[in-house]
Design a protein that fits this description.
The chain has about 120 residues and is an all-alpha fold. About 70% of the residues lie in helices and about 0% in strands. It is built from 4 helices and no strands. The radius of gyration is 20 Å and the shape is flat.
Length: about 120
């Protein structure tokens, strides 16, 4: 079964829905089944957190190096500078994630508006 298997207007939506559900819900069910039995400081959970953090870092790094859309029109210095400014704001505000995100996005938007 492929994305182009059926020539109907609704097929791509159903395919994405099913593929997204199957790819994520199995892990959610396993998390619910085993989550209550795993200690928070266990090596397995530390490993899972490390892998999840690495995946998020990889996605963010990919956006810096190979941007698409409107980000492709910005310079690497602007993207990295906005992220650094957001990280500094996050640390300065006592590790408040929302503030770091807002400051980083505001810096990126301001730099794009200035034409950097």
């Amino acid at each position: 079964m492929t994305f182009d298997a059926i020539d109907a207007w609704w097929w791509p939506f159903l395919f994405i829905l099913l593929a997204g559900w199957l790819a994520t819900d199995a892990w959610r069910f396993l998390g619910v089944a085993f989550g209550g039995r795993i200690r928070e400081d266990s090596e397995a959970l530390v490993f899972v957190r490390a892998v999840a953090t690495a995946l998020v870092a990889a996605v963010i790094g990919n956006l810096f190096v190979f941007p698409s859309g409107a980000l492709a029109d910005t310079t690497a210095a602007l993207r990295i500078g906005a992220a650094a400014l957001g990280f500094v704001a996050y640390l300065a505000a006592g590790k408040r994630m929302l503030l770091g995100i807002v400051v980083g996005e505001a810096a990126l938007i301001a730099g794009m508006a200035a034409g950097w």
